[in-house]
Amino acid sequence: MLRVAVVGSGPSGCYTAQSLVQQDPDVLVDVLDRLPCPYGLVRYGVAPDHEKIKSLQGNLRAVLEDDRVRFLGGVLVGGPAGPDVARLRELYHAVVYCVGAATDRHLGIPGEGLPGSWSATEFVAWYSAHPDAADAGFLRDARSAVVIGVGNVAVDVTRMLARGAAELSPTDMPQDALTTLTASRVSEVLMVGRRGPSQARFTTKELRELGGLPGTDVGVDPAELAMDPAYTDPSGLPAPQRRNLEVLRGWAAREPGNAARRIGLRFFLRPVELLGDGGRVAAVRFERTAPDGRGGVTGTGRFETVEAQLVLRSVGYRGVPLAGLPFDPAGGTVPNERGRVLRDGVARPGEYVAGWIKRGPTGVIGTNRPCAKETVAALLADAPALLRRELPRDPAQALRAEGIEPVEWAGWQAIERAEAELGARLGRHVVKLADWRSLLAAARTAGS
Q1: 258 φ, ψ (degrees, to nearest 5)
Q2: What is the Cα–Cα distance from 13 to 7, expressed in whole angstroms?
Q3: pLDDT of amino acid 89
Q4: Helix (H, G, I), strand (E, B) or coil at 30
Q5: Which residues contact 309 (CB under 8 A, 6 or more apart)?
Q6: pLDDT tens for residues 124-173?
């Protein structure tokens, strides 16, 4: 019987497990995660007010509740208190790493390290209750914010900064984050891209949500839109980009309102320096860019300074090395051939990757499904050779013998119950537990 470990319980990990049990009637799959909670970025990356996307947890749950799939949370592969890559190979016939892209890209400009300058990843982790996150003073003394980037994550954090208590209270946002956000004095948020509106990465649905926020005006500079050649003649653009331009065109035609909060979208501005005052971010210095005729932009030598006490960069994710696995620092991925890990350029049956660590941080959640299927096809093709090796014993028992206590599915269900009870006490629906101590304490009540 083929035993497979899938490292990571986000969409790519769950789709890998699903594809395995669908294609092999005898396979047993352990889904390992360093957190005691499953679902990866669906739990800790999807905005709390996006209930439809968060409902994907139901699909992932069905995978993890399969009789031949076992969830083992709280297992840090490659960490000081967890199994390393070599040990996993001893415990399983095959291991599939679905560890995503765990960090963010930097701007690489002066002042980026000033207090008040954060990655959108850090901000999202905080309001999504990731147990490694904490309130680092994101909103301390902030009246205006600049979000650098024009993708969906940038739209998400912009929207969270402009949401009020009435819209955030029904979500599962942790109580401390809810209290801090609803007490925020941020009244202006600028979302800024270095290229033009036709090259922005946000989807139209996400973009339109900004225009429907209560008590918030949205503004766009018509002159910046007109700098984009595709704005005047969008006929050559794909349909999603054409729809984005139509939304922006409508906002640009609006008369300025007098709402309490304002969101502005700016284009053709490249950040060159974060300026400080009193040891914290006070402004962002931008260089005006212009289309270079080849799909990129070039600097114009003209500069503009924008006041901001909070700067969030949202310029992409990046994979990080896992001790014991090869790593391509240029692409932030594990070298692979159709999912098979390459060591010194040679495929090594028994080690596989899927998701962002395989292909880079591209695509949407659904992109992980065909990516996982390709990896599983390679793994099952290798299975006859992999099965020749006898395994020592049940991997979970072996981990416990080594002092590792995985949080199994019953522990996760206990966490869910604790979050529902917390929500009821606070007069809300479900409220996430936001720290390791609370999560592990709740998991230990399983069966009690």
Answers
A1: -125, 35
A2: 7
A3: 95
A4: strand
A5: 116, 141, 142, 143, 144, 145, 280, 281, 282
A6: 999 999 999 988 889 999 999 999 999 999 999 999 999 988 999 999 99
